[in-house]
Amino acid sequence: DTGVSQNPRHKITKRGQNVTFRCDPISEHNRLYWYRQTLGQGPEFLTYFQNEAQLEKSRLLSDRFSAERPKGSFSTLEIQRTEQGDSAMYLCASTGMIGDFTDTQYFGPGTRLTVL
Amino acid sequence: QKEVEQNSGPLSVPEGAIASLNCTYSDRGSQSFFWYRQYSGKSPELIMFIYSNGDKEDGRFTAQLNKASQYVSLLIRDSQPSDSATYLCAVRAFSGGYNKLIFGAGTRLAVHP
Lengths: 116, 113
Fold this sequence. Notes:
The complex is a heterodimer.
Chain A: E1 5-7, E2 10-13, E3 19-24, E4 31-37, E5 44-50, E6 53-57, E7 65-68, E8 75-79, E9 88-95, E10 106-107, E11 111-115
Parallel strand pairs in A: 2-11
Antiparallel strand pairs in A: 1-3, 3-8, 4-5, 4-9, 5-6, 7-8, 9-10, 9-11
Chain B: E1 4-6, E2 11-14, E3 19-25, E4 33-38, E5 45-50, E6 54-58, E7 61-66, E8 71-76, E9 85-95, E10 98-103, E11 107-112
């Protein structure tokens, strides 16, 4: 078990460009979450997948954001036409280990996005 | 009103002292509560979870839950400089048939030698 991984770890882009982030959850976990965290704030929920189905999207997730989880394995988060306000740490978390009644979420290292 | 509230700090304690971190939540139906530690520039790492009223101890850490007062706390005994970090309180919210975590803004802890 290598934990949740995310790539890239850092991304610097110019306003208006598209970016895509990848999350590989812990292999036994069937549930995957994306959060966004800005400086001085706690993580804010963006979206949730159970297997390959995207079951919930926060109102924070504008039409420029799209997430997928093909085949219920890794997930991607794409931001189109980036804006400076999109600059944040994007965190992925997974859960769903059989027997884990606490439903504890384990976080990846995050992708820090800077939009110039 | 924020759903999960924490004092932003910084909370400054001397090495070896007890650090007390507090958190209040608004949803009286909340059942599970988590404390995460986050070092600067890093992602949150789980310290403890608690779901029953009372205390739960794990090494130097003790989580306390009082559902009647909608209050969760984390005590760190024998604080070390390596404990200096932001501590995030999270409440599990169940809606639409699934769980998500609602985080507070975190309390920054500084342990000085």
